[in-house]
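Record format v2
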Amino acid sequence: MSLHASVAVRRGTLDLRLDVEVADGEVLAVLGPNGAGKSTLLRVLAGLLPPDGGGVVVDGATWDCDGVHLAAHRRSLGMVFQDALLFPHLSVADNVGFGLRTRGTAKAAARAAAAAWLARVGLEGMGARRPGELSGGQAQRAALARALVGEPALLLLDEPLSALDARTRLAVRAELRRHLADFRGSTVLVTHDPVDAMALADRVVVVEDGRLVQEGTPEEIARRPRTDYVARLVGLSLLPGTGEGRTVRVDGGGVVAVAEEAVGAVFAAVRPESVALYLSRPEGSPRNVWRATVAGATPHGGTVRCDLAGEVPLVADVTATAFAELGLTVGAQVWAAVKASEVAVYAR
Amino acid sequence: MSRSREGAPVPAPLLVPAAIGVLFLTLPLLGLLVRTPWSQLGAQLTAPGVGQALRLSLVSATLATGLSLLLGVPLAWVLARSRARGRTVLRALVTVPLVLPPVVGGVALFLVLGRQGVVGSWLDDAFGITIPFTTTAVVIAETFVAMPFLVISVEGALRAADARFEDVAATLGAGRWTTFRSVTLPLVAPGIAAGAVLCWARALGEFGATITFAGNFPGTTQTMPLAVYLALQRDPDAAIVLSVLLLGVSLATLLLLRDRWLGRAGAA
């Protein structure tokens, strides 16, 4: 019981070629920028878009294969979209029971199942309401109940949290995590928010331009990003280079001192909070000191994230107080220092 | 709403033509009311033939609307949703009656469904059915002229409706027919209602195609517009009374349905 998919789709500028495997009870996050083909992948898995090649096999049953295309409504799946998309002409309970009714469950039984699921997602007693009377978070909970009520083999989540405001997202994410833990089928979650992927997924695949660029557990992805896109998502500066013992010669120029032996093609990754900024060249311990220009500065909570241009491109987080005390502005000349022990090195 | 009320004053170059436009559209109706012989109203309305014409008008316009709904809603769906290649040509063909002079439509119907017509002669030979100059012909003529209004209106509603709801229905196990019945149709119901009102009003006022294809026989094919035209030549006062009656029916329908359907759609 599981999902095996190998999907090829060509649509306009998108050329998607992706293999995904999801075990039962496993949550796979597909992380990638807009236009990477994530939603297209979900539409293929859902049967809303026939693939140009490849196949989709769920629990041993072929859903897609050359010549075979099982229509969406014959697939055992539930899907949650970015906007809840509750049918506006039906009550919340009828929305949740919709999938049972179409599959032949009697009205009373569908009602009872819908009520039970509404209670499970914390919407007890709201079944008689119209979707328009629900808040964004409530609507998304109802949409999740609607997708899960039929106990599908495959659950597809298309950016399920990105339309919610920050506070609601936090609450719904926590609940979603709980429901995913109880769900026995396979789940594919598409998102461009690394926090969703880290919090909800057992495994993450990163997709850029229709191709898989990295695969691993959330921890691996966060600690050892392999592309600039992932590095930026998880807040790391990624410096590809060549290891020469205790130094890494960066491909774009410059040398980074590291604490471990490094040989051959490697990535050196630097956390923004381990980059210190000075107005004059610092003396003493840090082994890495570079001249840099502040190319951009974005406030980020209590810190200011500074994009540094120079021999080695870096991102530095400094406290708002330090930013003001140093008198930093865009275009300011600074010295950036990083301890060798703060640089992570791993093979490319 | 409140925004447009608080909005900037209308510039004079727009205001003047707009005001003239309003006068142009309302003055004739006011003139009609001013000239109405209110004292004779009761007598004129109960005159023989008036009730008959009014009933025939209402019945045939309603039947034409029903027929238009039956054929027009599926047609609108095909135009809005299918990806068939000849769609643009199809849409052009369907909207021809919209711009065609109704008299020409009547002639065309006569040539096809008349006793000598391609389809008409076959109907006559095989079943002994003759269509021209019957109430059936009135309904057909009105449907021919009025259905495009419904099709255009429903197609617009279908295009404006969020097609992702249909995707959701599919992922919930609904086949295409179930999706159409239980999701698409309710979503575009306000558009269908608006289209049906437009269609009914157009059918009620139909003159050219009806008189050409169905003739002008009191009781079977003489609808209100035909009766008005005929009355104008021998008894102008009667024509005015009939016109006012038709105006009243049209306005009442518009106001009634607006509140019941369009109003609810706005609130939903």
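The CA atoms of residues 29 and 260 of chain A lie 32 Å apart.
Chain A has nine helices and 19 strands.
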